[in-house]
């Protein structure tokens, strides 16, 4: 077996990863999400309906993730500063989500929860998790760490400030 064949064999043996966010690519024409009122057209989800289109009713990838509680991004916040400025920080997270959602219909919060002095934020996309991490760092400093999965379909962000 030569180098080319070996490389080809290794490529073929790689497990295929299913990304639910790419599942919308099978849609022909336009679509309308009955859960959030987003529209799919020309390969992209947005909040605008294309004039003259007859969209097919469906559920967008973000609504699917929310229903399944299957976050593409997780942000974990901790530290004494968090406890002292909790509401202010949560408002920053919500405002960041609102700004991102206006431009990108699939980037939304799944939920915010608290456990053992930490705040956990789940997002439907990795870009919102990334943006929240950068917003926290810009506004409050602290230590931020970004960890992507190998295929970059999931992002874990940790932010801490004492």
From TrEMBL:
Residue ranges, annotated region (Disordered): 1-26
Source domain of life: Bacteria
Biased composition (Basic and acidic residues): 1-24
Matching InterPro entries: BCAM0308-like
NCBIfam families in UniProt: lxa_BCAM0308
Protein name from the UniProt record: NMD3 family protein
Species whose genome carries this gene: Pseudomonas oryzae
């Amino acid at each position: 077996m030569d180098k080319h064949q070996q490389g080809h064999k290794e490529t073929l043996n790689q497990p295929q990863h299913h990304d639910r966010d790419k599942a919308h690519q099978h849609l022909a024409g336009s679509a309308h999400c009955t859960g959030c009122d987003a529209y799919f057209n020309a390969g992209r989800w947005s909040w605008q309906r294309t004039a003259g289109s007859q969209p097919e009713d469906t559920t967008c990838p973000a609504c699917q993730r929310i229903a399944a509680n299957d976050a593409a991004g997780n942000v974990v916040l901790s530290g004494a500063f968090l406890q002292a400025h909790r509401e202010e920080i949560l408002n920053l997270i919500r405002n960041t989500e609102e700004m991102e959602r206006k431009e990108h219909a699939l980037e939304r919060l799944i939920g915010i929860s608290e456990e053992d002095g930490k705040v956990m934020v789940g997002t439907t996309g990795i870009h919102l998790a990334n943006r929240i991490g950068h917003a926290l760092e810009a506004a409050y400093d602290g230590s931020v760490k970004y960890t992507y999965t190998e295929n970059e379909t999931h992002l874990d962000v940790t932010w801490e400030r004492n």
